[in-house]
Amino acid sequence: MDARLNELSALLDSPRAGHRLRAMDAASAKRGGQIVRLIEDDNVIPMLIRGLADADRRVQRAAARGLRPWLAEEPALLDQVLSAYATHSFDGSYSHAGLCDTPTRNVWVPRFAAVRGHAALLPDANADRYFRFNFYVAGQAPGWIPSRSGSGHLVLIFVPEWSYGRQQLIPAHDERRMIANRREQQRYAAAIAAFYRNSALRYAVRVHENDGGGGHIRARRLDVLRIEAG
Q1: What's the DSSP call for residue 75?
Q2: Where in the sequence is the domain holding 67, given as residue range(s)?
Q3: Do 43 and 8 reside in the same domain of the chain?
Q4: Helices (H) and strands (E) in the chain — how many of each?
Q5: Mean pLDDT of the chain, nearest integer
Q6: Is there a single domain that holds both residue 100 and residue 137?
Q7: Mind giving me the DSSP string for 83-110?
């Protein structure tokens, strides 16, 4: 282990949050709008995962940022990261990007506010197995959703040409399989809606759908469902 990793390890053991934050910041930086690695050694990964469980939110966010380039290159790391980064419960207090594990339909929600930016770790990972969604608390929403005060917003992200069950692409001309795939993804969407319904939130939630894939949104459907306040 080189001197920089030894320094990171020592900083992570510090009782001072500022020192632990320095350790996370030493692993990555933003360059030209992208997060880049400052340390290439794979031994930094368990340190960053440890940072995700830190008591200080700043350290958690810096650890999430640091993991982004590693996850982009090694999608299998997501399985190691999820339990430190996310949980299966939500108290209604922050906006976030989350995932539904399609084999189990378990919903993963980050432990801190994360929709965009360096803290939004989950959408940057290879999510071929995970159905994605964004959740916005009351008073927050993307600009394309007409504002109605007092409601939260759940945006479900469908990928029409990707079969999560079969883990394969569907040809655009295969209409029958496209229809079946829409039904399959509606079941994942229903599991996510049920998760928020069971969270007994203090505000109602408007549910919307996006057809996306490859970073592009191709269609939007507003107010497909409403989850009443618990």
Answers
A1: T
A2: 1-74
A3: yes
A4: 6, 11
A5: 91
A6: yes
A7: HHHEES---S-S-EEEEEETTTTEEEEE
